[in-house]
Amino acid sequence: MRASPLSRFLLVAYVLLAVYASLYPLAGWRDPGEPALAFLLAPWPRYVTAFDLGANFLGYLPYGLLCALAVHPRLSGRAAALLAALSGGLLSLALEAAQSFLPARIPSNLDVLANLCGAAVGGIAGARLAHWLLDTGPLYRLRAAALAPGSAADLGLTLLGLWLFAQLNPATLLFGTGDLRDLVAGGAGERYRAELFVSIEAATAAANLCAVALLASAVARPGAPLRALLLGLLAVALVVKTLAFAILMRAEHVLAWLTPGAQIGLVLGVALAAAALQLPRTARLALAAMLLMAAAVLVNLAPPNPYLAATLKVWAQGHFLNFNGLTRLVGSLWPFAALAYLIYLASARQANGVR
User: Fold this and answer.
1) For residue 135, is pLDDT > 70?
2) For residues 173 and 18, which has the higher predicted lDDT (pLDDT)?
3) Is residue 141 part of a domain?
4) pLDDT for 313-329, tens place per residue?
5) Does residue 196 share a domain with residue 130?
């Protein structure tokens, strides 16, 4: 039995995402005029919805699961489950206290209790499943058969998971990560002809799809069924995009993401990726980096989507406001994290004298 770097990478990523989602929109900090933990002694909230309780419970359940997996095999059983529950409760308590300084957020003792229960249940599940998931089960065998050994491959797998998570935002172009306008400037570009947008969206989708395929190929084990794995990754990404529209939009808009530009981009991206996979590994890393940056430039110059404009008018974010802000943040920063990872892989290869 050995420790799982993948579980630890995922746990760190999940904590960072939980912090951002809990404190979003991170604006208007002020002194609440009372102790930050005063909400613990307040009466139960007058208005409680099943959605809020479920969201808080389910939001911390993965934390508990990942925490128990991250400490395996050093801690197991009850010790791992207890650590997951206690650390999850402390994290929730700290974030709820921080919400006291945000006018847009209301700290709640009931939220802390729901979060603690979610972390406890996740920790129990993680403690029970750790050996099966990390040492003997099908996921362990798939990891061993498909990915190169070492923590670098686990970090790449974490990046691919975050890329899939970014596809849950219905307001972005297909695979269109790297849009910084909401973070640094705000507002979209000027309106142009729909024909121009088709070209931009097609180029963006194709470039990002090829870059992600090349990144995934860099962490694959030699001899692994690479094309089958990449087609599976593409299928999962399209299913995630469709589910985002199905859950967040009306049922009739479930395929609104499949615009003319997206269709062309998918075809071009698959063809480009199939050709680029024949390149040497170092060339694939360099090409992936160039495509990521080119796609990010296109995304930031793109005019508003004329095909999704009417569809997005019916998008009432409501309970999903924080979640959508989180997916937008991940999508904005993902290509730059991927670029740093590609540079790390290339430098590690050069240090080892491998081309």
Assistant:
1) yes
2) 18
3) no
4) 555 554 555 677 788 88
5) no
Residue 229 structural domain: 149-351
CA distance to 28, 189, 228, 229, per residue, from 232 (Å): 43, 34, 6, 5
- 295 touches 127 (CB < 8 A): no
Q: Is residue 142 part of a domain?
A: no
pLDDT tens-place string over residues 57-90: 999 999 999 999 999 989 888 999 999 999 999 9
SS3 category, 305: coil
**Could you give the C-alpha distances from 159 to 13, 102, 250, in angstroms and in order?**
9, 30, 30
Torsion of CA 170, 171, 175, 176, to 10 degrees: -170
Q: Quick one: pLDDT band at residue 353, thresholds 50, 70, 90?
A: low
Q: What is the pLDDT of residue 355?
A: 47
- Average pLDDT in the 210-237 region? 92
Query: Residue 73: is the preceding peptide bond cis (ω within 30°)?
Result: yes
Same structural domain, 92 and 202: no
Reduced to 3 states (helix: H, G, I; strand: E, B; else coil), residue 220 is: strand
Dihedral sign of CA atoms 183, 188, 189, 192 in order: positive
pTM: 0.87
Tokens of 313: 């008018």
Domain tally, the chain: 2
Q: Is residue 91 part of a domain?
A: yes
Residue type, 136: T
